[in-house]
Specification:
The complex is a heterodimer of chains A (140) and B (338). Chain A has a single domain, classed as 3-Layer(aba) Sandwich (Rossmann fold), CATH 3.40.50. Helix content of chain A is 16%, strand content 28%. Chain B starts with a strand and ends in a 22-residue tail after the last helix. In chain B, helix 8 packs parallel to helix 9. Chain B folds into 2 domains: 146 residues, ATPase, nucleotide binding domain (Nucleotidyltransferase, domain 5, 2-Layer Sandwich), CATH 3.30.420.40; 169 residues, ATPase, nucleotide binding domain (Nucleotidyltransferase, domain 5, 2-Layer Sandwich). The interface between A and B is medium-sized, with 32 and 38 residues.
Amino acid sequence: METHITHSEEATREVAEEFLSTLKGGEVIELVGDLGSGKTTFVRGLVQALGSTARVKSPTFTVMNEYPTQSEKIKLVVHLDLYRFKEAGQLEALAINDYIKPDSIIVIEWPDIFEEPVLRADRKVMFRHIDEATREIQFV
Amino acid sequence: MRILGIESSCDETAIAVISGNKDILAVEKSVVLSQVKIHAKYGGVVPEVAARKHLEAIFPMIQNELDPQGKEIDVIAVTAGPGLASALRTGVEVAKTLAWVWKKPLIPVSHIEGHIYASWLNGEAQPVFPALCLIVSGGHTELILMQNHGVYSRIGETLDDAAGEAFDKTAKMIGLPYPGGPEIARYAKEGSPDAFDFPRGLINRPNFDFSFSGLKTAVLYKLRENETRINDIQFKRDISASIQEAIIDVLVKKTMKAVKQVNPASIILAGGVSANEALRERLQESARQVGVPLFVPKLEYSMDNAAMIAAAGFYRAKDEKNYLNPILLKADPNLDLI
């Protein structure tokens, strides 16, 4: 386990860039933490570090957003937010498996919204809100 | 000139025909099939489900509404983005096919530009340039200065969450169903907007950017402090009214600050959150005080529709450079207005 303390959104994005360097492509990554603990900022850091200028927004309404990148290794970031989901059975409708490809990564916010774990994830990052500007980020 | 508009960027399948005579637009047909009930059970729009529903809906819609040879149509305008990749593709591929078969010019339109042009569907009263546009929806919160048709610059935007998302996430926290915006507005009617003092992100910054993620965290902590009252209806109403007040306060104050600086001839309120009555009233009141006319779309054109896409297409069609070879058009989920 690797723990980082960040004091700004920019620092959180830098931690994301560091995390990115440990990825090969094809991973499913869980982001676990409260509202406002830095998950979406972290995804913004991943997408930016891959050379995309897209303005990453939390996919609450749309459940899933796709960001094509400029990178050869990871060509697409699929960003999911399960915050509003009610039952694990509904996950099937998302066809997540269709998005798992060697040159894509899938990042999932609120994978723990269901009582039992339902997703096979390769990596997990935990977020904690310490105070207004400070966040704790752990690569598990 | 008659324009066919096609929209499928999220959870509404829509087609419309509008006619433009000089600069006055008339909506001849506007059909919208909403999937909102289908997605409500998931608590959000599921892209694969949306794409399938668009496919089921769009051809019967075209058959029912249009001449099979496309005789009454001069130009086809379609939403090319931003939106859900798989949902956008349905409308884009249908528009390409029709343009190809009917040999009509094809014009890609940004969904955001469409929302702005919903304010050109009010008949003869049309916005005057330069126009300051406040765009607020589930995915967007930005201030755009429009110098002329199709000429935009962004003067401010949210650094984190969109206003619509702040409404929906906080709604879920207090146990209100999806979509949360209208629910918060409904509960807010009977609540006290001063009950809780929620943060107004970046309100004193000299720029025109927004931030709503601090509000989310503040509501979370307020709920933890008041765990025993979470099922109390008046508590929910007060929380809702205070959340709505915090969001509207920032939107209106930042917009009026921008009005002071850029001195626009009109203000346009656009996007799904423009349906929020309290926001409409507050912005109307502030605009009246400084004597700048505010344009707000009719309710039916404030939500996703194709008439607004056709309206944007009408102005784009004045310049043939905006015509696109159908084979070249691709849906772009992150298409930017600027």
